[in-house]
From TrEMBL, chain A:
<protein>
    <submittedName>
        <fullName>Sugar phosphate isomerase/epimerase</fullName>
    </submittedName>
</protein>
<dbReference type="GO" id="GO:0016853">
    <property type="term" value="F:isomerase activity"/>
</dbReference>
<keyword id="KW-0413">Isomerase</keyword>
<dbReference type="InterPro" id="IPR036237">
    <property type="entry name" value="Xyl_isomerase-like_sf"/>
</dbReference>
TrEMBL record, chain B:
<dbReference type="Pfam" id="PF19906">
    <property type="entry name" value="CGDB"/>
</dbReference>
<keyword id="KW-0119">Carbohydrate metabolism</keyword>
<protein>
    <recommendedName>
        <fullName>C-deglycosylation enzyme beta subunit</fullName>
    </recommendedName>
</protein>
<dbReference type="GO" id="GO:0016829">
    <property type="term" value="F:lyase activity"/>
</dbReference>
<keyword id="KW-0456">Lyase</keyword>
<comment type="similarity">
    <text>Belongs to the C-glycoside deglycosidase beta subunit family.</text>
</comment>
<dbReference type="InterPro" id="IPR045959">
    <property type="entry name" value="CGDB"/>
</dbReference>
<feature type="domain" description="C-glycoside deglycosidase beta subunit">
    <location>
        <begin position="21"/>
        <end position="109"/>
    </location>
</feature>
Length: 331, 126
């Protein structure tokens, strides 16, 4: 067995959401295609996207899945789990004991399918970590909370988690940075999709202006909406233009340095990599060296999220993204 | 329309025992409990269809649409169609109809988010 000496590249099957929803691949075929194109071996899978039996995967399915990934020569690194607290819209969230059990069900399923870590979410209240972490230790599976836009290293929720991590002092808990929180600009392909949806250039100009202002993403979305409604833009156009505020934010790319030590896995979020290997919105040349030089030896999974507004070839995009990451990491 | 926006399923519209059966897809990237999905309305040929006696059928189980909000532990696999069954209909096999479906989805890990999804299609009764 070899020991990783630097960051690895891999892929999350979330990149292939369009192909999956269109039923172009069954799971065995999708795994084979990822392997055939050399996009692994390390992969991430969202439990609730690709496994019908989630959150309670049977022993039979788990065994079949382990055989499938082994046959494809893939390594199931990360299983994304969810903190579904609001099961009845408009009513109170489920109680703490039920939420803890909901996480344990997913942890058990991930473990028996052979994943070495799970991605979890800040929707899990921090005070429940002392109940869940010992269970992860018992199962011998790590948990990384996803630091996703609008969050970033300096966000109060991240700081509260960091304090609890210090207190619990266990190797099973860590961070999963998602680079969408430190986008340097709005992806041009996203603007183009808004244009196709009918958004006027004046609305997109205002979007770019508000993007650069201070404040939380939801506040900026509100500001844009208020201006656009007063200016007579249609709600559907405003919705298309506002997507940027819901999946991206423009915090400092260098801010990730504060989280490198406890980073166990990375979501290499991206929107479009050009032929000359440059990502439209996220400044990889600034971000990746922080992790490489900080000693990170886990996996950066390519996470193409252009499918939220676009139907480009996801496989080609992932190939380019991995080539870009390798080039930067080798520099 | 993006794949994630589709709410009328590939299996389309059928009639059986006087009940209309419409295939629905979940407009989200992952499976969700049925309790966070609301069927807001169904129109056939421009007329609103009474859903008070409607049922949801999924994976061998069936429950009243009115009780869908209680299905917190029944997960709608994102690849599958679920079926909206409306009794007391008289659509003729082979006939063609304009169908408009509207759903709301409230992702259970994003407090306060309620997404509106609507789709219209011309479907033949299979």
């Amino acid at each position: 067995m070899t020991t990783a000496s630097g960051p690895q590249v891999g892929v999350t099957l979330y990149s292939f959401t369009n192909e999956w929803l269109l039923r172009q691949f069954e799971l065995p075929d999708l795994l084979q295609e990822v392997a055939r194109r050399g996009l692994g071996p390390n992969i991430e899978i969202i439990g609730f996207q690709n496994f019908k039996e989630f959150p309670d995967v049977s022993d039979d399915f788990a065994a079949r899945f382990r055989d499938l990934v082994a046959a494809a020569g893939l390594n199931p690194v990360s299983c994304a789990i969810n903190s579904d607290r609001f099961l009845k819209p408009g009513q109170q969230p489920i109680d703490d004991a039920d939420l803890v059990e909901y996480h344990k069900r997913q942890l058990r399923s991930a473990k028996k399918m052979g994943f070495s870590l799970v991605r979890y979410q800040f929707a899990l209240p921090v005070h429940l970590l002392p109940e869940i972490a010992p269970y992860a230790e018992e199962l011998d599976i790590r948990m990384g909370v996803e630091v996703h836009a609008p969050m970033w290293a300096g966000h109060p929720a991240v700081q509260a988690y960091g304090e609890m991590y210090d207190k619990l002092d266990t190797p099973v808990l860590g961070w999963i940075p998602d680079f969408g929180g430190t986008a340097s600009r709005i992806p041009e392909s996203m603007l183009e999709a808004a244009r196709r949806a009918g958004a006027a250039e004046s609305l997109l100009d205002k979007l770019k202006e508000v993007w650069l202002e201070g404040g939380m993403s939801h506040e900026k979305a509100g500001r844009l909406r208020e201006w656009a409604l007063a200016a007579g833009h249609a709600p559907a156009h405003i919705q298309a233009a506002s997507l940027a505020f819901f999946i991206l934010s423009n915090n400092d790319p260098k801010s990730w340095a504060a989280l490198v030590d406890r980073t166990i896995h990375i979501h290499g979020k991206f929107y479009g990599v050009s032929e000359d290997l440059v990502e439209e919105a996220i400044d990889y040349a600034t971000i990746l060296p922080l992790f490489r030089d900080g000693g990170f030896t886990g996996t950066i999974v390519s996470e193409w999220e252009g499918h939220a507004y676009d139907t480009r070839d996801a496989f080609l995009q992932v190939e380019r993204h991995q080539a870009m990451c390798r080039r930067i990491l080798a520099a | 329309m993006l794949p994630v926006e589709r709410i009328i399923g590939e299996e389309g519209l059928t009639m059986a025992d006087g009940a209309l059966r419409l295939a629905m897809r979940l407009p989200w990237y992952r499976s969700l409990p049925f309790s966070v999905v609301e069927v807001e309305s169904l129109e056939v040929d421009g007329a609103s269809v009474d859903l008070s006696a409607a049922k949801i059928a999924y994976d061998g189980a069936e429950w009243p649409l009115a009780a869908n909000g209680d299905q917190t532990n029944a997960f709608w696999f994102v690849r599958d169609s679920a079926f909206l069954i409306v009794p007391g209909q008289d659509l003729v096999p082979g006939s063609t109809h304009d169908v408009a479906l509207t759903l709301y989805v409230s992702p259970p890990y994003i407090p306060g988010m309620k997404r509106f999804n609507t789709q219209a299609a011309t479907l033949s009764i299979n």
